[in-house]
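Record type: monomer structure entry
Structure origin: computed from sequence
Chain ID: A
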Amino acid sequence: MTVEAALLACMQPDVLPALLDAGLPQDTRGLLPSRLRPDERMQMVLDGADDALWGAAWERCRSECVSEPGWDVLFT
């Protein structure tokens, strides 16, 4: 769930309006600020997250989902 949330956050920038405003040229990489590029946004998440964050997220996931059907297979 944490990874999904991170990926969704990275895919939410207002890229389409920026591309439309730019007239959809062949190579738009130089026209868009890096904060609008999904790959750059994902790298910011990865750079800012450490093992403690992912460990805490996993433990929270386990505590919230352990009683749901099928999750026991994942946790083992």
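Annotation 1: The chain has five helices and no strands.
Annotation 2: The two ends are 18 Å apart (CA to CA).
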